[in-house]
Amino acid sequence: MTPSGGIVRFDDARPIALAIAREAVTEGLDGVLIRDVLGRFCLALDDRHRELPEEAVARWRAELTERLGLYAAPNTILRASELFAAEAVFDSPRILDEPELAGHFGPGRIRTLDNTVVGEDWSHVTIPSPLESGIQTARVALYGFKGGVGRSTAAYMLGKHLADRGWCVLVVDLDLESPGSGALLLNEEAAPQYGLVDHLVEFALRNAEGLDLVERASGVSITGNGELWVAPARGRGSGNAPYAYVDKLNRVYSDAVGGALPSFADRLECAVSACGMAVAERSRQPDVILLDSRAGIHDIAAIAISRLCDLALLFGSDNSQTWQGYGDLFAAWRSSGQAEAIREKLRMVASMVPDKRRADYLGTFRDHAWTCFSVLYDDLPPGDMSGFNPSPEDTAAPHYPIPILFSLDLVGLDGAANPGWSEQTFAQAAYEEFLDTAMRLITEGLQ
User: Fold this and answer.
1) What domains can you pick out in the chain, each with its CATH number?
2) What pLDDT, on the 0 to 100 scale, is given for residue 131?
3) pTM as predicted
4) What's the CA gap between 2 and 19, in Å, rounded?
């Protein structure tokens, strides 16, 4: 049956398709239920050794089209005899037996085949446009080449810091594979029904209207007139069907062949904008959107830094993994002609700085960062000040580190079990310079 409200979402489509496929099993037919990279279903039936009942095929085609809505593939029924290479479907090594369609439903056998794709988008650096209201909103990406550098905790601290000073802040959890800031800022029961992953899936089929995507931060107390909102990576689901987070995640990065549907980059930009507009509709336009990006050289990081933000805070520790990773990334920007466009968006953050040898550590960090960032700077002869080539000591340069101090009290901290932890002395001391500097950079960008 069709879900209440008449709109089929990703979670609803699979049970509907399985129910229709059961009819083919009872007819004694073998086939494959195929889900494409957008989550749409079609049923491939094997007529190589048996004639298909035309009346039943027409009925299944109509049912799939009508009941799946936008989650019906353009051609809902495929015949093996009409496929160029039927064995690529029916003998695919990725094909799986479906327990729900086991033999007790009938003599036939229906199996399932899922299709997913991943792309990339590092090479198109742009300045983000304001949201539709025309009110300027700062977009800040928090990114670490390696995980475990405190990026999500920093997003929590910065979001609270800005909100405590009267700003309206939205934190968007873009770490889809390992959600972080959403869980820090929201109690599970207070999460919105849908998350970023739902908008990415539904928007591909022009089906994203009316999604509940944002909620006020419930895991943090805000003082003053500011607001802190959260757009989590995953929602809590509707309860009408299982929340298939992994199945959705397998599809969000796909780009449709031939450009018939929006690219992943376009969908991600629209998702972030939709979250900002959702906050504006429920309260007021966000002053700042913090994009908690995932680690690594990945699609989301590429788009968050290259396309969605006007300030990117790059987190790292002083080790070879950090500099090799950022070096590869910067070299790619240089070779693709993006150095000039990207470099002034960037600012390095030195995470987990040891307090007892802070000065020495930051000095070494700064020198390594300058060497790494130099590939993005202009090659100038000595004494030539016409281009962009800041010295290692230039405190306003992209490479000059903003420190976050290391504290054992922050290691393995369970924020939900320790309310008010961000107000304690150890947290304030660790993040003081980072918060002040980040707020100044954001303020300057809005002027």
Assistant:
1) 10-114 (no CATH), 138-446 (3.40.50.300)
2) 42
3) 0.82
4) 11
